[in-house]
Amino acid sequence: MQEKFSLLPKVRSFRQSLVIAGLLVLVDAFLMNQGFISIFFGLGLLLIGLPRAFLRKFAIVRSRLLRNLAVYFTAIALVFVLNWANNRIAASRGDALVAAIKAFHNKYQRYPESLEALVPEFIGSVPWAKYTLVYGHFMYLKFEGSALLYYTALPPSGRPTYNFSRGAWGYLD
User: Which residue, of 34, 95, 109, 141, is most buried by count of CB atoms within 10 Å of its CB?
Assistant: First the structure.
């Protein structure tokens, strides 16, 4: 019986697949927050992994490969859900910062020099834009008679920007 299973091709264990999926979520959702790695990984799974799984002769190998593919596709979906949620959080926090900056402007007839100037009178602390290690902060630029507040929604560009001269959100790039 042992000889029969030794002839089967090697397939990653469920635990190994979970580790790879976890690393994908960690890197692509919490470190980079962009989804590009997941897109390429998913395309590879669709174009190479899925056909290879269905072409396997042994049902046990095919079922293990499909199980692993399901883990990877679940991780990819989780990356996109987390990226969407992070950007919704950033938009909400951005609106709160805009309100604080407007309140500062109404009181002092000028824009603050930095976001830290809003603390503690207008906000308790300067929030992170989102829960990522890279591109997780708000950026604030003050210039002659106006200011800009922005964050990175889709690194390295894709920056929603509030222009205080226009009084509206737009995109820097």
Answer: 34
